[in-house]
Amino acid sequence: MKNILMIATGGTIASAEEGNGLAPALTGEQLAGYVPEIAKVCNLDIIQLMNIDSTNMRPRDWLRMAACVEEHYDAYDGFVILHGTDTMAYTAAALSYLVQDSPKPIVLTGSQRPMANPFTDAKLNLFQSVLYAASDTAHDVAVVFGGEVIAGTRARKQRTMSANAFISVNFPTLAMVRGERIVRAGTAPAAPAGPVFYHALNERVIVLKLTPEMHPSIFELLARDYDAVILETFGIGGIPEYEDASYERAIFDWVDSGRTVVLTTQVPEEGLDLGVYEVGRAYADHPGILKGDDMTTEALVAKTMWALGQTRDASELRELFYRPINHDRLPM
Ligand code: ASP
């Protein structure tokens, strides 16, 4: 039987109503106790790394999770991380960059309703996550939720209440879990040759969503606290150029000062192409401006933090940024 390590961090799955709204209360041991069927699938050990609402999760917590996986990597065949759903997509992306090319699966799951709720989705999510983590054909970081297996860099929380909370953005789901079976189209990919662990992130990264009339002087205000701006442009890549306010000047000044700009779109699906409209062309070929292309904003946040954690050299940064990792972008 496989040995699986479950790392409990909190979230709705562990939550109970204690008079002031739902808050994490149950331990990982208690949660596993609700799903005795796990014993038929694997030997499960449990670590309680933290017990928080994922709203409070931040890069230092992602580093702790990656360090926990690294410390126990040789002793286990797979890992299941119990996590709140609200920021799970960010954590899944961050772990995809912190633990690369992992032949052993690192699965994130949680639930929309607490484990003790009579209508909970927690039991099936936990069971199916363990099942996937114990399968021979699973590798790398993935979210298992609502019967879907989603690459860790492609997940997005799309629904606030329903059991099918997550979608895979601009990329097919890796597999489905139906009952006790993992169902894939075609053959499973070969195991990667890693793992490669990374230990640094630069958290000075912010996402800015363009809205009509937003003033480009916002970049000057951000310079004190941030090294990188991920700008969610309009449509396939539109950035305004007003008669009385120049985004071109603000963005080129930001890049010339040694900071990073990543352009993406605020449209939920299909990605960026700056070459299509005149309103994006000025940015299309500038070597200092990084293009998110088909990546999710969640993955762009994590990847930019990871890449800036490794280097500040512009050409090294480009190389890291455009390197496809755990299916995060289609190869150029
Ligand atoms: N607020 C909760 C969390 O993210 C929501 C959930 O887990 O579904 O921790």
SSE order and pairing:
Layout: E1 2-10, E2 15-17, E3 22-24, H1 28-33, E4 42-52, H2 59-72, E5 78-82, H3 88-98, E6 99-100, E7 106-109, H4 122-133, E8 141-145, E9 148-151, E10 155-157, E11 166-168, E12 175-178, E13 181-183, E14 196-197, E15 205-209, H5 218-222, E16 228-233, H6 247-256, E17 260-265, H7 278-284, E18 289-291, H8 297-310, H9 314-322
This protein binds aspartic acid.
Short description:
The chain has helices at 28-33, 59-72, 88-98, 122-133, 218-222, 247-256, 278-284, 297-310, 314-322; strands at residues 2-10, 15-17, 22-24, 42-52, 78-82, 99-100, 106-109, 141-145, 148-151, 155-157, 166-168, 175-178, 181-183, 196-197, 205-209, 228-233, 260-265, 289-291. With 332 residues, it is α/β, with parallel strands linked by helices. The site of aspartic acid has 10 residues, from loops.
Relevant terms:
single chain, 332 residues, alpha/beta, Rossmann fold, 2 domains, 8-stranded mixed sheet, 4-stranded parallel sheet, 9 helices, 27% helix, binds aspartic acid
Describe the structure.
It is a single chain. By secondary structure, the protein is an alpha/beta fold. The protein has 2 domains: 2-197, L-asparaginase, N-terminal domain (Rossmann fold, 3-Layer(aba) Sandwich); 205-322, Rossmann fold. It has helices at 28-33, 59-72, 88-98, 122-133, 218-222, 247-256, 278-284, 297-310, 314-322; strands at residues 2-10, 15-17, 22-24, 42-52, 78-82, 99-100, 106-109, 141-145, 148-151, 155-157, 166-168, 175-178, 181-183, 196-197, 205-209, 228-233, 260-265, 289-291. The strands form 5 sheets. It has an 8-stranded mixed sheet, with helices on both faces. It has a 4-stranded parallel sheet with strand order 15-16-17-18, sandwiched between helices. α5 (218-222) links the parallel β15 (205-209) and β16. α2 (59-72) packs across α3 and α3 packs parallel to α8. The model has no long low-confidence stretch (mean pLDDT 96). The structure holds aspartic acid. Aspartic acid binds at residues 11-12, 53-55, 84-86, 110, 112.
